[in-house]
Design a protein that fits this description.
Helices cover 78% and strands 0% of the residues. It is built from 16 helices and no strands. The two termini are 39 Å apart. By secondary structure, the protein is an all-alpha fold. It has one domain: Up-down Bundle (Growth Hormone, Chain: A).
Length: 423
């Protein structure tokens, strides 16, 4: 086994946890590259087929919704058939979806490929999987590891958006589908050869601690039942709904609104497709740094206060953007400012779930919370498209998202009010 040989080679110099983290980072970065592609192809699809933005946004909304709703069941499946096998299955579905998307010519085909198949496939690189990797491989530096994994979202945008934007502008939307298909094909052997099931499978302990809390990471039973049992356990807690509600607003204001519609917003204001994609990609630079810094700070700070600051800053930035003049300076400032807190919510959210519900339950609950994050994303992706078609402007959508972020800031400060959050 290549992973075992590499672990022996690194023994005494580098814990394999960092290699597992690197593999997971690459997979998540590739998944984000695929997930970000719909924002790039809205304009080319509109020009090629005459479909309106609301129709295309509907497929993207379905993608985001399924990414969230399937995620908990993928995490449950992981606990039954294993982390590695689950990721390989998801990548296989993703490969089929991106490959078939090259041939679409009708809206229902857009919904089946970019909506259903890719939405399900991308769930293999979602938050529940990231939480499972961080909890399984790390005892020390766990929030930092989670922050680094979530930084893959920023890295995926930074690497893929400018490339895909240029490909879409120069070669059309089919070239985008071919590009992301090639990316997914390259990820399959990386996972197969380099991602072990757990530290125990290599005869190792987790980094900074003892053996992982569950001796055998797989469970017997129905993965759907495992997932639903996790939801029932979480749903009894007011804190779960406070965390989930605030994270739904997070999805509404990031992937759903900015991630899906920022490029089209910029094109409406006179920027080219490639320049708009590069602007959104540049958000990834500050997001990459912000997510890692968030992980480091989460190991040391009150997670609720961190979330309060993040949501207030995000809400203000979203409400100011439509009035910024839309020159290159103001757009760059928005990308930098908004990017710092783009995925910085994730490490404190995961820390709160670990504290309230424990490490063993956390991955499934993270997946359910992320499902509501994606419900918020789907509502924004669809709603902003409908509002834009109805009013001719994205102004109402951005103002609504800003107000919602201020509501999220109020929600997070109520976490733990009913009962003290465990240390």
């Amino acid at each position: 086994m290549l992973a075992a040989a590499l672990a022996r080679l690194c023994a005494g110099r580098l814990h394999y946890a960092w290699i597992a983290l690197g593999v997971s980072f690459v997979v998540m970065m590739g998944a984000v590259g695929v997930r970000s592609a719909p924002g790039v192809i809205i304009v080319p699809l509109r020009d090629a087929f005459g479909w309106d933005v609301a129709t295309i946004s509907g497929a993207i909304s379905l993608n985001l919704l399924l990414l969230g709703l399937v995620g908990p069941f993928v995490t449950g499946l992981m606990e039954v058939i294993g982390l590695k096998n689950t990721m390989l299955c998801c990548l296989g579905v993703l490969l089929a979806g991106t490959g078939l998307s090259v041939f679409i010519s009708q809206p229902w085909q857009l919904f089946m490929t970019w909506g259903v198949m890719i939405g399900i496939g991308v769930s293999g690189g979602a938050m529940g999987m990231a939480a499972a990797v961080a909890n399984r491989w790390f005892t020390a530096h766990r929030s930092l590891a989670m922050g680094m994994l979530i930084a893959a979202n920023a890295a995926g945008q930074l690497v893929f958006l400018p490339i895909l934007g240029r490909v879409a502008q120069d070669h059309g939307w089919r070239a985008v589908s071919l590009t992301v298909t090639l990316v997914v094909a390259c990820l399959l052997p990386v996972v197969f050869f380099l991602l072990p099931e757990s530290p125990r499978s290599l005869g190792l302990t987790s980094l900074g601690g003892g053996l992982e809390p569950v001796a055998a990471p797989r469970r017997a039973g129905n993965p759907f039942l495992v997932t639903l049992q996790g939801l029932v356990a979480g749903a009894r807690s007011v804190d779960f709904w406070l965390i989930a509600g605030s994270f739904a607003i997070c999805g509404f204001s990031t992937a759903g609104l900015v991630g899906t519609h920022f490029i089209t917003y910029c094109v409406d204001e006179g920027y080219s497709q490639a320049a708009s994609a590069s602007l959104l990609g540049s958000l990834g630079v500050s997001s990459l740094l912000g997510s890692i810094a968030s992980g480091w700070l989460t190991d040391r700070c009150d997670a609720r206060l961190m979330l309060l600051g993040i949501f207030v800053l995000r809400g203000v930035s979203l409400m100011l953007l439509p009035y910024s003049g839309f020159d290159m300076l103001s757009l760059t400032a928005f990308a930098v400012f908004n990017g710092v807190e783009w995925v910085a919510t994730v490490p404190p959210i995961v820390k709160l779930l670990n504290e309230v519900f424990g490490r063993e339950r956390a991955p499934v609950l993270v997946s359910w919370v992320y499902a509501l994050h994606q419900v918020g994303s789907a509502l924004a992706a669809m709603g902003a498209g409908v509002l834009r078609e109805a009013s001719g402007s994205y102004l109402p959508a951005f103002l609504a998202a800003g107000v919602a972020c201020l509501l999220a800031a109020w929600l997070v400060m109520r976490i733990g009010r009913g009962a003290a959050v465990a240390a």
